[in-house]
Description:
The chain has helices at about 5-30, 35-45, 65-100, 100-125, 130, 135-155. It is mainly α. Helix 1 crosses helix 2, helix 1 runs antiparallel to helix 3 and helix 4 runs antiparallel to helix 6 (about 135-155). The longest helix has about 30 residues, at about 65-100.
Amino acid sequence: MSLALSLIVFKFVLLAGLAAWLSVAAFNSLRSFGNAVFALGQLMRMAPLQQAPAIQTPLLARRVESVFWHRAVLALVLAAELVSAGLLWFAAAAFAGAAAEPAAWANLALAAFMATCLLMLLGGSWFAYYIRQSEAQLLHFVLIGVGVAAMIAVNLRA
């Protein structure tokens, strides 16, 4: 096996793995939409800040109680996940020879992936999730780092 071919295999596995992970995440949210709305609603209601000991902060004025908005935001996140996953699948297929310019497709797909992660990071930050849900914020930062590392990897030349 040549170095060039091994890099192509690596890039395919990386992109397909991210696509599969994001596809499972989106599928899980679709499969249990009500639970996902509830979980997102907890964040948007800033419910963790009300758990003992309650944290009083002016940021609580940002609470969103409306289930309509919880559903709408989840629909936006799901749309971003599905578009990102679809682009990642296409980019993986491009490295398997299904399209020209596979690195360009991968860059587009990874930009969509990072935009999805930034959407979640910024949304969570708006509702101050870093106060009681720091693990979620850390996950979003790690995913952005994965996107950056993947962007570097897919642009490696043999």
